[in-house]
Amino acid sequence: MNRSKRIIAIMIGVGVLGTMSVAQSPPDDAVPPRAGSHPVAVIDLVRIFSECAQIQDLNEIMKVQTEEAAKEAQQRRKVIEDKQTELSAFRPGSQDFVTRRKDLVRLNIEANVWLKVTEQQMDQDKFDWTRVIYEQTMKVASEIARERGYDVVLLRNDFKPDDIEQSVQALRRFIQERQVLWNAADIDITDQVIRRLDAAYKQGGGKRLLGQPAGAP
């Protein structure tokens, strides 16, 4: 599969390209920080990895590629099944039987290798794009924090126990992993980050750039 046509997605799967120049985005969304000697901001990565324009485009492309891979896998299985049916018509040990069995073994090996390589490539794409999008999110968040005078940006996520595994162990892990229990709405910079990511994504070429490997110049 041509890597330039592969994309995965997040996740997360999940964003912006590493080539986007968000630093040039005008700080039109900058507002004065809250009072305090060490102001803190928060950001919701779940929203970042679900609402950004690039994430939505990546998910759409990934869905198409997954469907295409499933279709090819089905076609390969059909060929193997037909070969298996043909093989049963020949006497075991005959030259025709031996020849067709070798062909059947070859097809099975090729199908298994193709499936493994395809899955590895898709997983690698997901890893690459998730990393790029997260790194770009950190860059944008730090720019906004400096503009608004924040010293720290913390990760926050909503408490939604119905969205996790219904076990006390899963609930405890979820609670322990939360970094912010509550925050004032005006220190949440998630909306500003999304707007800048989307602006940079559009300025950089939008969906046209998604055919490139993650992080490509």
Task: Report on the architecture of this protein.
The chain has 217 residues and is mainly alpha-helical. It has a domain at 9-73 and 127-207: Protein Binding, DinI Protein, Chain A (2-Layer Sandwich), CATH 3.30.910.20. The chain is 55% helix and 4% strand. The chain contains five helices and two strands, in the order βαααβαα. It has helices at residues 45-51, 53-87, 95-148, 168-177, 190-203, and strands at 40-43, 152-155. It has a two-stranded parallel sheet with strand order 1-2. Helix 3 (95-148) packs across helix 5 (190-203). The longest helix is centred in the middle third of the chain and has 54 residues, at 95-148. It starts with 39 loop residues before the first strand and ends in a 14-residue tail after the last helix. Residues 1-26 have low confidence and may be disordered.
Question: How is this fold's topology laid out?
Answer:
Layout: E1 40-43, H1 45-51, H2 53-87, H3 95-148, E2 152-155, H4 168-177, H5 190-203
Parallel strand pairs: 1-2
Write a concise keyword list for the protein shown above.
single chain; 217 residues; mainly alpha; Protein Binding, DinI Protein, Chain A; two-stranded parallel ribbon; 5 helices; 2 strands
Describe the structure concisely for a colleague:
The protein is mainly alpha-helical and 217 residues long. The chain has helices spanning 45-51, 53-87, 95-148, 168-177, 190-203; strands spanning 40-43, 152-155.
Identify the CATH homologous superfamily of the domain at 9-73 and 127-207.
Skp domain
Give the structural class: mainly alpha
Shape estimate: elongated
Q: What share of residues are in beta strands?
A: under 5%
SSE order, as H and E?
Answer: EHHHEHH
The radius of gyration over CA amounts to 25 Å
What is the C-level CATH assignment of the domain at 9-73 and 127-207?
Answer: Alpha Beta
CATH topology of the domain at 9-73 and 127-207: Protein Binding, DinI Protein, Chain A
The total count of helices amounts to 5
What is the strand arrangement across the widest sheet?
1-2
The helicity comes to: 55-70%
What is the typical, i.e. mean, pLDDT?
83
